[in-house]
Specification:
CATH architecture: 3-Layer(aba) Sandwich
CATH class: Alpha Beta
CATH topology: Rossmann fold
Number of strands: 7
Order of helices and strands: EHEHEHEHEHEHHHE
Shape: globular
Helix content: 25-40%
CATH superfamily: NAD(P)-binding Rossmann-like Domain
Structural class: alpha/beta
Length: 269
């Protein structure tokens, strides 16, 4: 029971196949009490998934770009629990112009790029700032990432947003460490989620990823990623912060074979 007695906030649960839904399930199995967030038309979808969890959690509205929602969330969690031991940031979005265009980065204007950066990167800072007054020493913030150390086909401005997310994690780790709060990322391999299906060419990469991964990779199984997130949310990594934990079957560590250059598969948003 790694999370026995822990109070956790989980964002990003939209369908039962989402990584966040798997994290929520494993976290409950490990003893955590949860609140999920969603907003707008997604609330119904999140509530539907919540009812399938071992202990159906409440769903609180949170649009990560809305300051009023952040304030209301802090008030709700303060009344409900008085503290928050951890949070999963599983939020990402880029407008259509930011992904998979023939012109690459040149296709999107600033308004589209600003949306991608705010929702996918700045929101980590916004969420941490909202929860910090409720977080005791030892609390943990974990965000979902895709390795941004290189440029990927079709990922375009979302790749830039993930690079910004990684930098945000490092600086938050620096700034929150004095409060005893850890901030880490889990860089997942591609999984067959709703977000992944929005990326051009996703179907072509599924077999390739499994073939290249030293440990193999199942695009239908979010369990390894969920377990990594739960481990980082627990007390078992008390001196780890600012880290990117790769859960991708080992692909990040293996060089491209001859003839593969420029054909690396697209990741999940």
């Amino acid at each position: 029971m790694l999370l026995d007695g822990k109070k956790l906030l989980i964002t990003g649960v939209l369908t039962k196949d989402s990584i966040a839904a798997a994290v929520a399930r494993v976290a409950q199995e490990q003893g955590a009490e949860l609140v999920l967030t969603s907003f707008g038309r997604g609330m119904r979808l999140t509530e539907r998934v919540a009812r399938t969890l071992p202990s159906p959690p409440d769903v609180v509205e949170l649009d990560v770009t809305d300051a009023a929602h952040h304030a209301a969330l802090a008030d709700e969690l303060g009344r409900r629990w008085g503290k928050v031991d951890g949070a999963l940031h599983a939020v990402g979005f880029a407008p259509e112009a930011c992904l998979g265009q023939d012109e690459g980065l040149l296709a999107a204007d600033w308004d589209d790029v600003a949306t991608a950066l705010q929702v996918s990167a700045y929101s980590l800072k916004a969420l941490a700032e909202t929860l910090l007054p409720l977080m005791p020493p030892g609390a943990s913030v974990v965000a979902l990432d895709f390795d941004a150390a290189q440029a990927w086909p079709a990922y375009d401005w979302m790749g830039v947003a993930k690079a910004a997310l990684e930098a945000t994690c490092r600086y938050l780790a620096r700034d929150l460490g004095g409060r005893g709060v850890r901030v880490n990322l889990v860089a997942a391999g591609p999984l067959r989620t709703l977000a992944a299906r929005s990326i051009p060419g996703f179907g072509a990469m599924e077999a390739a990823w499994g073939q290249r991964a030293p440990l193999g990779w199942d695009v239908r199984d979010p369990e390894p990623v969920a377990r990594a997130c739960v481990a980082l949310l627990s007390d078992w990594f008390p001196a780890t912060t600012g880290e990117i934990l790769h859960v991708d079957g080992g692909v990040h560590a293996v060089a491209l074979a001859a003839g593969e250059a420029g054909t690396r598969p697209e990741p999940e948003v």
